[in-house]
Predict the 3D structure of the following.
Amino acid sequence: MTGGMDGHAEDRGRVYQASGDQHINEHHHYGVDTTGVRGPDSVRRPAVGRPPVVLRDRTEVMERLRTSVETGRGGEVYVLYGMGGCGKTAVACDFFQLATGDYGRVGLWVNASDRASLRAGMLAVAADRGAADGELLAARNGLRPAADLVWHHLDRSAEAWLLVLDNADEPEILRDGSWLRTSPRGTVVVTTRAAARWWPGAELQHIGVLPREDAALVLRDLAPGSGTAEQAARIADRLGRLPLALTLAGGFLSHQVLDPWTLEAYGHHLDEDERVQLIDRGADALSEADPRHLVGLTWQLTLDAFEARGLPEAAALLRLLARFAPEPLPLSLLNHADIGVVLPRARTETALRALLDQSLTDLVDVGVRCVQSHGVLLDSVSTATPAERIPALDTTAVRLLDSAVPGMPDAGPHDPRLRLLVPHALALLRHAGEPSARTTALAVATRLSIALHRTGDYLSAWDTSRTSADLAQQSLGADHRLVLAARSRAGRALFRLGRYAEAERSLRGVRAVQERLFGADDPDALDSCYGLQLVLANLGSREESLALLRTVVSGRHRALGPGHPLTLRARASLLEMLPACEVVTEEGGTLLSLPSECARLLGPDHTVTLGAGHNHAWALYLLGRYEEADEEMRLVAEAYVRRFGPEYPIVLAARQLHSRTRSALGHLGTGIELMTDVVVRRERDLGPEHPFTVASRRLLEEYRSGRWRPPRPPDA
């Protein structure tokens, strides 16, 4: 807390600044995988497709890396840097196999290409090194520093380890989160296209193109018998000796069955510039040294061969994949009827197999079966895509992503596919040219950020909504409805991360613009108003917060109707915001019947119904109706455990309130037992000095010392 505030954790699991015995909360819309908080399942294996048959040339760098995993070595960071397609990941993968196989190191592989992937991967590393579910949940919820948790467990690992941070092409992602550190227990290897100046203190290793002889051997490894060593060397020269281009060329040569090509014939086709020059296909001009140009020379020949064999769908699928990011893309996205705009759905399997055979894409398993292509290849394909095909490709890509994001995000189990979708949502916003595709992509990205928010991954939710708004604003403008909605979601995530001052500025600004453009009763403006009152409640501005909450209740009642879940949710917030003496008179005395109204309209297990029951139990407790409060709190706590699992913060908050109702009824022993469990879990998950832990420990001490007293009812 800052600014001299003395807020403390109350019974709903947040830090609050308020006067009197207040109970302030945003209803928790999130859930947990009760089998454990997991990131990518591939943390113990490289998240790459097929490694090279033989790693050519890299003898010197491999020897340098090998010495770092000898017995007793640790505390080193190696950065493999160079242009795209030069084989940095291949070197890291080969070293990974060596370290885990010959040297007995625990191998940990994390995709560091974007914040969401890095965060999920590093939390999976923490889980692998012994972090408990509660600790991981706290890190994801922003209740404890995630990087500190990860490196705490890496430093205390019983086994020596190797950690690979692959595709760290934006080093500020590592720097901003303090993710890159050293430890005597292990070695870190980073692969990146970033300049060497970004990596002070690390041992740098440039990975360049292959020497002529080794480049020729790559072609002969992949396509033995297709020509002489000198012919292979000439083709390698033509392809700039770039490992990625060589791999694509070798894959093509090795899969020509009916009419096999020789290296000599392949060279003749490379020289026919009118067939392969990207600029002749309406693309941006590329220099001869640009890796996209070198890769383009190879894949275009492959696509021409697909056309000749009656497989035009393979080219269409590759162009569709190029609208997405060069990160794992769940295969389920491609198995959807909307793909029929670009290629027949019945031919998708055949097209994918053709791309896999030619090394134009790979299958990877990151806990979800995915397809992944190299970024340089996708850039090259995107650059060469005819302009008239782009609108249909963009529209289809957005529809496929739309189908993968929950239509109405709600509390539920942690879904690793959500994190996988983030880079693709942002890539579509970067690629989309037509305004309709761009606005739809922004709507999908914002809904994805809401889904992330409601699984408690607030940092990913904030980054997704903030970046989406920044990208879309360039073309749609700052005052576009969807841009403002994305900014509002970013403000809500900042609140959850405890960045109250930033959240207040953001939400005040967005709400003012929304009300000016759309009116005070506009649903988007009311959403921002609801978020703002939460922030103000935590900053101690109770009167303004309550006034805004009443504005939201009345506005949603008019705009959405009395039975809408958002209207009921806002009314439920009144149960916890109002003093006990006002709860009984609010809405003519009907507010206290809200839980039964929610159960009738939404069902007993609906998220809003559960939240209303929790808030209602608090109000009953303040009113001195301890038996009713105790029974309701018991039922709510049991429902939370079924829904979220025993470690989730809201479960502990519910148990804390349950301990109060038990103690108020004279069952102090049960109250102490409940609070002891809460304190143990919070000390383990959040640390002994976290405000939530401190507040829980204080309540437990009051029970044990006999100083605790229940609140005085208003009529007492």
